[in-house]
Amino acid sequence: MVPEGCYLFLGDNRANSVDSRYWSNPYIPYDEIMGEAKFIIKPFDRFGGLK
Questions:
Q1: Domain count, the chain
Q2: Host domain of residue 20
Q3: Are 28 and 39 in contact (CB under 8 A)?
Q4: Example GO molecular function term (predicted)?
Q5: Partner of 17 at 20 to 30 A CA spacing, among 23, 31, 37, 40?
Q6: 1-50 pLDDT, tens per residue?
């Protein structure tokens, strides 16, 4: 269960992603998030802005 006010970041390829499940503290408080995703870079055939 993710604590209230926190986020857990997961990669889009769970079998091959080093995402927040592997960090020493996987739950990130909202006030510590410093940015947001705007673009897809890889794979190159999906390059572009996020909707």
A1: 1
A2: 6-49
A3: no
A4: serine-type endopeptidase activity
A5: 31
A6: 999 999 999 888 888 888 899 989 999 999 999 998 899 998 899 999 99
